[in-house]
Design goal:
- The protein is α+β, with helices and mostly antiparallel strands.
- It has one domain (21-191): NTF2-like, domain 1 (Nuclear Transport Factor 2, Chain: A, Roll).
- The protein contains 8 helices and 4 strands; from the N terminus they run H-H-H-H-E-E-H-H-E-E-H-H.
- Helix 5 (97-121) packs antiparallel against helix 6 (129-146) and helix 5 (97-121) runs parallel beside helix 8.
């Protein structure tokens, strides 16, 4: 009997969670989906096509973005609902991509120079040496982005949400223009400056 009562409580709690749609749940769900690059899940939390996040980037760039996003921690501090609109204040902590990429510059240059010398010597017999060089550079960059001693940055931001079909969704246009994605821009810019064939 006690077990049955417990099961009913758990079931009621689960049903309650599934049925509710709070703005802060949408924000947390959005960041969870973003960190795992789950585009299908991401689409549930935004009011437009989410391909804007990962669509135009190369596979290598996407790997770097995922490494960066994996370090992100979010804290919801305040929610204000006005009719079918809401504003959620968040505190976001993540790796300072610009500083981290800058710190890795000399290591990347040494690696690229070493590979170029190997390739130009004519003694290097790899099937695709450029692809191997890119992979090595990519691993260096992913390593510095996820290192425990990487410099961190904390920003506070306000996210706009709107109610769509009884579900709270983030305004995609305002998200992509927000400061919280400056890290992704820094990573893509740095990677482009390396001028590696992608």
């Amino acid at each position: 009997m006690k077990n049955m009562f417990l099961m009913l409580l758990v079931s009621f709690g689960l049903v309650g969670c599934v049925g509710s749609s709070r703005p802060e749940d949408a924000v947390n769900g959005f960041f969870d989906a973003l960190k795992s690059a789950d585009m299908k899940k991401l689409a549930d939390y935004v009011d437009a096509d989410p391909d804007v996040f990962f669509g135009p980037f190369s596979a290598n760039e996407n790997e770097l973005i995922q490494a960066f996003l994996s370090t992100m921690k979010i804290e919801v501090s305040k929610t204000k609902i006005t009719g079918d609109k809401a504003k959620v204040s968040i505190k976001l902590r993540f790796v300072d991509a610009k500083a981290t990429m800058k710190n890795s510059e000399s290591q990347v240059k040494v690696t690229v120079t070493s590979w170029i010398q190997k390739i130009n010597s004519g003694k290097f017999n790899a099937v695709d040496p450029e692809a191997q060089m890119q992979k090595e550079v990519l691993e260096i960059l992913k390593g510095v982005l996820t290192a425990s001693n990487a410099p961190l940055k904390t920003i506070e931001s306000e996210l706009d949400l709107v109610m769509v079909d009884s579900k709270w969704k983030l305004s995609l246009e305002k998200i992509t223009n927000a400061r919280l994605f400056e890290g992704i821009r820094d990573i893509i810019f740095f990677y482009a400056m390396l001028d590696l064939k992608r």
